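User: Here's a protein and a ligand (zinc ion). What would the complex look like?
Assistant: Let me lay out the input and then the predicted complex.
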Amino acid sequence: MWRSWVAKLGARERMTAIGNSAPLGFGLRTWEFWRERQYLARLSGVNEGFSFGAEQRSRRDSAQVIVLVIGESSRFDRWGLNGYARDTTPLLSKEKNLLSLSDLITSVSATRLSVPVILSRKPSRQSLNAGFSEKSLVSAFREAGYKTFWLSNQMSFGEFDTPISVFAREADVTRFFNLGGYADSPSHDDVLLAPLQAAIDDSAKKKLIVLHSLGSHWNYGQRYPKEFDRWQPSLFGSVNAAFTDLALKEALNNSYDNSVLYTDWFLSKVIDSLKRTNEVASMMYVADHGQSLYDGDCRIAFHGHNTQYEFHVPALVWFSNSYERVFPKKIRVLHQHRDSRLSTENVFHSLLDMADIRYPSEQLGWSFFSPHWTPHQRFVDSYGWTNYDDATMEGACREVIRRQETVPSD
Ligand SMILES: [Zn+2]
């Protein structure tokens, strides 16, 4: 189990997880990192000429701004607005034009594998393969006349470092703000707010802005400033804490909730910036995967495991009043799907449909803004591909276990 868990992690996450186990750590991470870079550089050349043929037929000359926030390590049931006993989302709970999707899952619990499924048409069951033969939604928006921004509080060493940075480089403007790291870096997500405002103020009429946040990534105690350190005892300011240390259970959980409280504030700021435009504006938030947090008697924390806590992610849509006036039908349909069985595979299709961008190969059956939406099977990488809706959630860890031996066909 330890081997398969390590395999799901990215090169840099492996550094955190096993990098200290020298000399094994150094040789492994150097080789893996080099191998992935070579592969992604090759792949980038292959899909250079790819095009969606995307265009916006309606409101071609009108202003519009769309923000996609990619959340990090956030789990559905720790958000107050999703019914959590602690009020971790006091600001978002007051937003009128905000809708939480109650049943959206990710197919795999590892950033570098799950984010590409959010951004592209990569099928979930291909998510374990590095790279993909198509470009991402960033390119589709560009083709449709949008100026595109990728603003990240995650790290990137270079253009071909991860499958995510390959997609990030499709944007007109790509900027990485985290110069520290994941584990003990105090680069809080508010570092993205000023660049976001600058992007919103850009003279281009239509804009897509992707914010790749650090959210609730371990070390949770480093994810928020002091004023959000509400639940105690916490890991606030701690360095070198280990998520494998069961003795930290209480502080780890409190800090996790504090990081969600900070995300609530961060997303409210994003929404405030969009409200001030008085334009047709909207925001979609979706987390890349959730997190195990020593639930009950469960003795695991972090991600890369096979638990429901890691597959069920929070997802939100916010829209301005102007957006609803222009696209009332989309909002009506969205409300109908708030409890539908969704997955990150729906995001590409839904975000483009939300902007009313059309392209010859579009499949509106995958868009939760479309009356043509149809349910699809949802597979998660849990001891092999497992049909999430035909699985049992076992034990305190709520491991997703296949109910019957079915081999999915493509
Ligand atoms: Zn992640």
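Summary: The pocket of zinc ion is lined by residues 72-73, 111, 288-289 (CB under 6 Å).
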